[in-house]
């Protein structure tokens, strides 16, 4: 009897989520990729050299942390071949398909707070539908301890270096189809996804949720409390907004507006919150234009309320990946 009641409750919850997703999806505005788009900018040797690192054999520590019907979750970590920010190991939760064969694989980059229910939800949804997923853990980063624009640059450069090495590790695994690698990120993860996609040609499909650029514009325009408090501290020290903007613009070269134009807009899907005050709408639109006006979905929400759209975003993102990788 208890089992029956639990099954009924699960069914009702699923129905509620499904109905809510359908209703919310009707409040979205959706635009296809600009038909006039002719292709990405060519990656320069100088740019590729800046994001290169010593090649080494990756000897990873692998620990099983969960098992589901169709996939296993492993905790994986290994040292970076190059550290320009911190000395932490590269860490990821890897959702691996159980059945034999090669499968499309997605990097999933979390919000600033780290791996939470939102990225886990995407990973579970993708893994349940035949994808391997690598949920990448953030490196420790405290905005209050940041004293220079160079430190901000080193943090974002390290993000690109770490994710490129994760791709190196993944393509060596027998269950990974190296021709079907994609990336998905939310908020800060979406910003980082735009950078990684701009640098690494192995990524053939990218979803950027609530992302924008430039870093300088986001820093000065964001209403997020920690960022505002940080800017107010600088202002109290007598540093004016123009100086802050110039410093960040000049020294943070690992910036979405500089790198995303190297990604192919035809292989990108964006989700933008129309009333976003954390990653302001202006910054989201700047990134969209910099990439080349890729397919975009405008959500009738703010930054945090957009998480009500997660079930819809999961389904839409999976459909986008399947279409690009030509999988059923």
CATH architecture: 3-Layer(aba) Sandwich
CATH class: Alpha Beta
Strand order of the largest sheet: 1-10-9-8-7-5-6-4-3-2
Shape: globular
User: For the residues shown, what is the average pLDDT?
Assistant: 92
Number of helices: 11
Class by SSE composition: alpha/beta
Largest sheet, in brief, is: 10 strands, mixed
Instruction: Give the amount of beta strand, in percent.
Output: 15-25%
Listing every helix as H and every strand as E from the N terminus to the C terminus, the arrangement reads: HEHEEEEHEHEHEHHHHEHEH
Helix content percent band: 40-55%
How many domains? The number is 1
**Poorly predicted ranges:** 13-20
The count of strands amounts to: 10
Looking at CATH, which topology would you report? Rossmann fold
Estimated radius of gyration = 20 Å
Termini separation: 37 Å
* CATH level 4 superfamily: Alpha/Beta hydrolase fold, catalytic domain
Task: Summarize the SSE layout with pairings.
Elements: H1 2-25, E1 29-31, H2 45-50, E2 61-67, E3 71-78, E4 90-97, E5 103-109, H3 117-127, E6 132-136, H4 149-171, E7 176-186, H5 188-199, E8 203-209, H6 215-221, H7 225-236, H8 241-251, H9 256-259, E9 268-273, H10 281-291, E10 295-299, H11 310-325
Parallel strand pairs: 5-6, 5-7, 7-8, 8-9, 9-10
Antiparallel strand pairs: 1-10, 2-3, 3-4, 4-6
Helix pairs in contact: 3-11, 4-5, 6-8
Annotation keywords:
ten-stranded mixed beta sheet; Rossmann fold; 328 residues; alpha/beta
């Amino acid at each position: 009897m208890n089992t029956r009641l639990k099954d009924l409750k699960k069914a009702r919850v699923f129905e509620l989520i499904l109905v809510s997703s359908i209703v919310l999806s009707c409040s979205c505005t959706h635009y296809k990729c600009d038909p006039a788009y002719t292709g990405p900018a060519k990656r320069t040797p100088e740019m590729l050299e800046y994001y290169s690192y010593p090649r080494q054999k990756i000897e990873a520590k692998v620990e099983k942390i969960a098992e589901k019907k169709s996939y296993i979750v492993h905790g994986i970590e290994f040292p970076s071949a190059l550290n320009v920010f911190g000395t932490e190991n590269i860490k990821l939760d890897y959702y691996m398909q159980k059945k034999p064969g090669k499968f499309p694989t997605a990097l999933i980059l979390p919000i600033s707070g780290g791996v939470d229910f939102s990225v886990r939800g995407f990973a579970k949804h993708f893994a349940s539908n035949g994808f391997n997923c690598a949920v990448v853990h953030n490196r420790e980063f405290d905005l209050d301890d940041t004293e220079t624009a160079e430190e901000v640059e080193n943090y974002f450069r390290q993000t690109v270096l770490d994710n490129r090495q994760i791709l190196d590790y993944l393509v060596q695994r027998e269950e990974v189809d190296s021709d079907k690698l994609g990336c998905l990120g939310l908020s800060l993860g979406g910003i980082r996804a735009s950078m990684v996609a701009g640098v690494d040609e192995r990524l053939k499909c990218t979803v950027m949720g609530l992302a924008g650029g430039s870093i300088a514009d986001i820093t000065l325009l964001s209403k997020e409390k920690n960022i505002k408090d940080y800017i107010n501290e600088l202002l109290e020290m007598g540093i004016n907004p123009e100086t802050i903007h110039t410093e960040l613009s000049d020294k943070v070269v690992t910036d979405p507006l500089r790198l995303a134009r190297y990604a192919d807009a035809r292989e990108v899907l964006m989700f933008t919150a129309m009333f976003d005050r954390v990653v302001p709408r202006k910054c989201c639109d700047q990134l969209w234009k910099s990439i080349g006006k890729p397919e975009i979905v405008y959500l009738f929400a703010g930054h945090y309320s957009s998480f009500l759209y997660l079930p819809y975003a999961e389904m839409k993102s999976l459909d986008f990946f399947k279409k690009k990788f030509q999988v059923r």
